[in-house]
Every structure is written in C-alpha cells, then in structure tokens.
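S.,

Sequence below, as promised.
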Amino acid sequence: MTKKETALLLILAAINFTHIVDFMILMPLGPSLMNTLHINNQQFGIIVASYSLSAAVSSLLSSFFVDQYDRKKVLSFAYVGFLIGTFACAFAPNFLLLTSARILAGFFGGILGSQVLSIVGDTIAYEKRATAMAYIMAAFSMASVLGVPLGLKLTTLWNWHAPFVAVGSLGILILILILIYVPELKGHISTEKTNHLEVYRSIKSNQNQQYALLLSFVLMIGHFIIIPFISTYLVLNLSFSESRLDLVYLVGGLVTIFTSPIIGKLADKYGKHKLFMIFGFFSVVPIFLLTNLSTTIIYMILSVTGLFFITASGRMIPTQALITSVVSPDKRGGFMSINSFVQQLGAGIASLIGGVVAYKSVGNLLINYDVLGYISIAFILLGVYVSTKIERK
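The prediction came back faster than expected:
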C-alpha cells in the first residue's frame, strides 16, 4: 500500500468511524432511551429501523446520478448532510423528533457508505482490496473500542444526547480533512451521454451482480436481527449493568483491531470467497451462544460477544471485497448505492422483525431472543450458499 493510498484509506476510515458510531451508539442506549422517552421495545425497533430504511431510500435514489459526479463532491455533500442529521439527534426531545432526526441522518449516511466503498474500489487494485477493506473495517473496531464506550460514558456523565454532540463535533474536523486531502476522483465519469437506468439494466442482465446484491441482503438480515437487542438482553435477562455495557464494545473492538488486518491479508492471499466461507460457517457458534446465554459471569459474556465481533468482521471484510469486484468502475458508484440500498433495507427489515418477535414480558425479561438467533443462523447459512454462485477472480 502506497503512502497516498494509506492516507486516503485513513480518512475514509475516519468517515466510517463517525458514521458507525452514530449508528451503533443508539443500540446500547436502548435501555436508557426506553426509560427516558417512555417507549417500548417495538418503538425502539422503529427508531433503529428508521435510520436503515431512510438510508435504503437515499441509496436507491443516488444510484441514478452518483457516477456522473466527482466522488469527492458527492462524499463531501453527503457528509455535511449526515452531520446536520447527527446534530438534530443531539437535540431531539422525544420519540417523534428523534425518529425524524434518525431518518435525516440515515438519508445521508446511506450515500456515505456506498461512496466510501466505491472510492476503495476505484483506487485500490483487487489484489490488495481485502487488505484495504480491513482498514475500513478497522473503523468498526475503533468505534467499538473508543466511540461507543466514550459515548456511553458521556451518557452516564450527562445524558443520552451527549454522544451525538461529540460525533457531530468530531465530524466537523473530518470534513475539513476531506476538503483538503481527498483528491478529485473523476476517472469513472463517462464522456458519453448518460443513461441513468444503465446500472439497473446491467444488474438485470448480469447474474453475478444479482447474486452479490442478494448476498448483501441476506447477510444484513442475519446480522441485524440480533444486533439491536444485545444490550437489552444483557441488561434485562442477565442483570448486566448498564454502566458496564461499554465493556462489550471495548472488548469486541480490541480483538477485531488485531484480527481484521490478518483476515484482510489472508483473504487477499488465499481467496476472498474461501475466507468468507470459513467465517460464515464459524459464526454460527457465537450467534447461538450469544442468543442463548444464561450465565451472569462477566468474562464468559465478554468472551462470547468478543467472538461474535470477530466472526462478524470476518464475514464482512471478504464480502465487501467480493462485491466491489463484480462491476466495472464506470458503474461502480451506482451499483454500490444499490448495494447500500439492499443492505440498509435488510437491516431495517431485520430491526422491525426483531422488535416484533422479541418482546418484554411482564417480569421485564426479553422473550424470544433465542428465536432471533435461529433466524440469524438460517440467513447466515443462506448467505454462504449464495456466495457459491458468485463468479470469483
């Protein structure tokens, strides 16, 4: 990796860091939000899903035009909108306004995610792309190690609004870095007359792209049907202290900081699909253990959640490298926007399903979390099968 490539990846990872913290911080805030805003489990599921579904809509809309503009300009525009939405979350006083703010943040967040991946696909050779994706995925680890624990600490010291103020403030600094250091990226722009439906026609005629999108969709359902309710399950069913929830994300982030670069290098060396298959099958174990936990011993809980984080990133790194390879650069922005659409749609649907299937009992326990685990396993294994249909380099 050259110095310029590394610098660009670090800025993209920083963008992803704020984007991921903004999304992730809401989940461990579940117990606090339910008490403060006087909402139930279903309403909390709606708040989580609103971000994802809004991101899905913006991703679909942006697929019509993103490939006709400098990727830096699209990235900057989306990041400004994302920051406005994040600050709106910081000052939302009730369920309705918080949901509206999440819709705004999600709308621009959906564009952000696809642009980050498109830029990686445009600037990094396929042979090094899984390693590059490990940089981007490292943002998830840092969000877990620093972002979420600090956000929860700010919540303890002040209130649940504070993490959004912090993310928005950091985002202003990152926006300055984008404007100064990210180069213009216009090499993908076609000089021929644009047909805004071309990317859809390409997908319609290309089975490889269809399977890539299906893989994204089923994996996101498998992942997000259990993720939003981890904190609620630990607090309600296992008497895990809200003040110690940061440990779950701290441990998960620390282990993936070390494992993600290794996974990226192994995927580049031995094959993206092979690594995905290994982690796809292996991830069944921590999903089952997590959703059927009955112990209150903290080191056992952290061991299971840490293993869950490792296998989740192990699936995602090779998957993203695979997906960016199924489309040519001139259509990559549009395709990745559609990919973001199906991912966010999957995450939104999963959050809504999770909020309906899992519910709080009269005794204030979360019921049917194990059922969500079985659904998750089924979708992850379906994803493993779908991946075998994708032609590989």
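The mean pLDDT is 86.

Coffee later?
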